Amino acid sequence: MNSKPKDSAHTELAADNALYIESLYEQFLTDPNSVDATWQQYFEQYQSANDAKHNAIKDQFLLLARNQTANKGTIVVEGNNNGHCVDPKQMGVQKLISAYRRRGHRRAQLDPLQLTPRADIEDLTLAFHGLSESDLDTVFPTSDLNIGKSEASLREIIEILERVYCGNIGVEYMHVNTSEEKRWMERYLETNHGHIKFDQEKRLSILERLTAAEGLEKYLARKYTGVKRFGLEGGESFIPAVNEIIQRAGGYGTKEMVIGMAHRGRLNLLVNILGKNPADLFDEFDGKVQPEKGSGDVKYHNGYSSNVMTPGGEAHLALAFNPSHLEIVSPVLEGSVRARQVRRNDTTGNMVLPIVVHGDAAFAGQGVVQETFQMSQTRAYTTGGTVHIVINNQVGFTTSRQEDARSTEYCTDVAKMVHAPILHVNGDNPEAVVFASQLALDYRHEFGKDIVIDLFCYRRNGHNEADEPSATQPLMYAVIKKLPTTRALYAQKLIAEGVLTKEVETEYEDNYRESLDRGEYVVNSLVLEPNSNLYVNWKPYLGHDLVDDWDTGVDIEKLKAYGRRMAEVPEGYKLQRQVQKVVEQRLAMQTGEEPLNWGAAETLAYASLVDNDDTLVRITGEDVGRGTFSHRHTELYNTADGSMYVPLAHLSDTQARFATYNSLLSEEAVLAFEYGYATTVPNALVVWEAQFGDFVNGAQVVIDQFISSGETKWQRVCGLTMLLPHGFEGQGPEHSSARLERFLQLCAEDNMQVITPTTPAQIFHALRRQAVRPIRKPLIVMSPKSLLRHKLATSTLDELANGKFETVLPEIDTHNADAITRLVVCGGKVYYDLLEQRRALGLDHVAIVRVEQLYPLPEARLNAEIAKYSNLEEIVWTQEEPLNQGAWYYLAPEMYRLVSDHATAAKLLKPVARPASAAPATGSAKLHVQQQQALIAGGLGIEVSQLAQ
After folding, report:
1. What's the mean pLDDT in 817-830?
2. Considering only CA atoms, which of 319, 313, 200, 322 is closest in space to residue 254?
3. Any keyword Oxidoreductase (predicted)?
């Protein structure tokens, strides 16, 4: 049962008492009046037509009598409140079984090095449960122990429990929160009595993969002595484990498997699982392979893809590219898997499988692991369960003491937060490793949830092949030096059992080495002519120049039709009062009756993409449905029952998918997920919005390692759009800046686009341009906050229908160009503050030009605007950010070069900004106003006292 009676007389029941409750339930099913009235009421809640009758309690008394006649000791019987008998010895056996299931893993033989002795576990002793050695030959009911018979001696029961729970596999599953999953695990583990039985063919295939794993490392060690490769020595069982998961998943009908992992064993996986040609790897070691363009990356960061044959047919494998930030690949991979599942309409997750490989220190130490686990069952991010494999070296670089590496017993304890089962397994028992792999895959297939394989192994070398590990782990490496390899141990076992001969074993080694010498593929299941329908063709999106001009207009009647359709809600749907007002006002805007504000233009862009351009649109982030600043309202809620309606998902029966999800409170994992998604689906607009722009600081590793550099390192193009609220409005240091300067510092080689749009039409065309061009580059949008409803920041339907994204917006008021002596160049919301004061004060000698795209900088367009004014005496770049932040330090060299053709202007170019500051903005509202006034006055070339009030 999953809960206790709601009666104050009943205290909280420990897990040890679960079987006692089940015995009461058996009594209840046979005779309801035989149990206490409170228990009767409790059990009646769970009665259903599908309940199966349990064995009558009288069978237990017959068994008790049989035990007594066997003269195995007197069984004391005590009475309960109703005078019914409960056998304390039987209760002790039931509690002992429960203890093994719950705590047996703590006595399992997991460490190949046997450096840490297993602690004595008190509740796995007979005495703890009121039993003794005199009870060992007593026959007891086996209760729910899945051993194929209803009774057994205590000795046999313990022997089975020891094999199942205390051998080379230690299983943690009692923290799982559903009885169905627990019972499934128990049946899976206990049915074979702890005996792992593979036929000869299977055992030889395991040896063959171990031979490959060890053979590659030995070959590389001889050929490239001392060169970094982050070899797999000590963890060779990883290769047969992954091979088993792939082949078994293929048998289930899985068509794509995506693998993410850091350095250790990566080259081995590439060659021995994904089928990379060893000759190509050797060329990389020899330095013969140079990047065709961009920087390229080291060989143990690169990704790869291939097709292999499985029992269920051909399947596509993809190894994700991965930087040195280790666990950051986990959410990237999950995003890629989710995109593949959407493409296949795979609602169960059975057609695309994520496999994530971790290091023990990183798994325990990096917060993105927790974030990714927390995402695993949410609407926006679930992928139907992930198989996690921890290559547990029992040391992180040089840190091996548990009190230094973590605060938990196991490195995998973080997985318990989502009730994921954990399979600890000794890496020197490859059959146990393969069995654990089968269990993990089967569990994932059955329940669609995450599961973890904790592969206890070791590093035969140091952190890398140039490192000397005995300097920091002398005792560990004294043991390792004497320890035979996993393959040697397994081969000896098979020879001893007559499965193969020494000659055949040697032949395995020789054949593999000769294949490497010849530079041949060493994966037998590799498909050399892969089915291209199993993956996406990105060629149409490659090789294009990043041009400014692109037609992004939409027929005005279509825009009006979208507006009317988005204003419709299901019959009887009652909206909250303010939301209803937004819907009505937006309808007027989108049908041309009123000027469009930001939200009206943005939602029209989405509508046109999913309908007219057949582009998938996905928007995630904290509070994106409504929008942090209440401007979007793509999700409408019925005040009567709380149900949600998304008009953009119901434009037509043939439209593309529109999805908006409010994310969990994470930046790093969520942004990484969306990056992975965007790099997998080309015909999509994938948008992540930060609640406030500065929140992106928590995801800086994603920006640095993937978004800004993924194309130059790995040739991975990505069309991800980031909306980052940015603007100085007196909200303090934490909610003013999206750190524009950091993005601009990362800009090079046309790697991404950074824009500061100031009108609804501009955001409409920028979003459409991002999707309709056959170019995929990240788009960083410094989104305004006050401009969402600013009286001057409006656009017309005609500007949406006939315009395009303008990288530079010229002076909009009518001026005599010859009269202009001061040119203000700016970007973002500061433009409207400057414009209002310029108009109010009648400063007809001042022109204001907006740079709407900061990177790639539209030099020709900006130069053309400067050239309009032949009598310039001053050119000023005006920004709200402090001088050491914002765009100035990026723009200054370009601006000086641009105005070099204008001799007078070149001498007078200068910035106007807040004073250089260690923080982005002041926390004082009064000081903010003073700074803003000084900024506007400085931009216009007047005194603060002259500003209009």
Report:
1. 95
2. 313
3. yes
